[in-house]
């Protein structure tokens, strides 16, 4: 088994590589088929997925059985003013990988986002719900999903939300840092979603990719909360001496309207391979104990 991972230096890519090498995640052992796999990680500098000729060249040289696309342009605010780059990476990068995968008959795992949905309502989004993204970032990710479906016949689209992990920058690290610097931190309380530990995502990617159950899979932590609730638990679990106060999205002054509601329903995941995603509080507690 040979596995090529794009975005290898990112939050998800780094954890994929580590877990494959250790042959386990926090949720348990990886599938037997993946043990002793040859893992080739490519950072964005080593493999620019927006360049089709480069993608084709690397894929034909490596000849992977599976490609996991963990590369993405994830700066939601910057995407509003740099739409070109967001589309190059999130949309056409996904298309290029789908084309290259189909040419060598490899499987493709593509990591999507909760931002492909409208972010409105109060019922968790299912895979069958209409994708109606509101931001440039969300639209670029939806285009990527559509291209994968159009150009690749062996795909798994994995859609997490509110991701945090041991590598790179994320909300948990930010709140821990701020809690050491300030006595009071304000966090929005009018946006709800599912915090998701990267180990849970990686564990389920491994379970899916050894099957032929191709399709769309929401993959987020169980339970939902606001960013304010999330921050309060981070402070509680890290035993920081800091007060987390609620504020509105308007007070936050973001150039992009964030989804008011982005909780996901993992129905397809449960039906295909079983939903072992942890409750967000339990997964967060383990994360903070480990760091």
Q: Tally of extended strands?
A: 14
Shape: globular
According to CATH, the fold-level topology is: Rossmann fold
Name the strands of the widest sheet in spatial order: 4-1-5-6-7-12
N- and C-termini, Cα separation: 32 Å
Top CATH class: Alpha Beta
CATH architecture term: 3-Layer(aba) Sandwich
Helix amount, in percent? 40-55%
Tally of separate helices: 11
Structural class: alpha/beta
Mean pLDDT: 97
Q: CATH superfamily, please? A: NAD(P)-binding Rossmann-like Domain
Number of domains: 1
Rg is: 18 Å
Helices and strands, in order, run as: EHEEEHEHHEHEEHEEEHEEHEHHH
Percent range for β-strand residues: 15-25%
Low-confidence stretches: none
Largest sheet: 6 strands, parallel
GO molecular function, one term: dTDP-4-dehydrorhamnose reductase activity
EC number: 1.1.1.133
Pfam family, one: RmlD_sub_bind
Pathway: Carbohydrate biosynthesis; dTDP-L-rhamnose biosynthesis
Provide structural commentary.
The protein has 291 residues and is α/β, with parallel strands linked by helices. It has a single domain (2-168, 195-223, 263-278), classed as NAD(P)-binding Rossmann-like Domain (Rossmann fold), CATH 3.40.50.720. The chain has eleven helices and 14 strands. It has a six-stranded parallel β-sheet, sandwiched between helices. A two-stranded antiparallel sheet has the order 2-3. A two-stranded parallel ribbon has the order 8-11. Its EC number is 1.1.1.133. Pathway: Carbohydrate biosynthesis; dTDP-L-rhamnose biosynthesis. This is dTDP-4-dehydrorhamnose reductase. It holds the Pfam family RmlD_sub_bind.
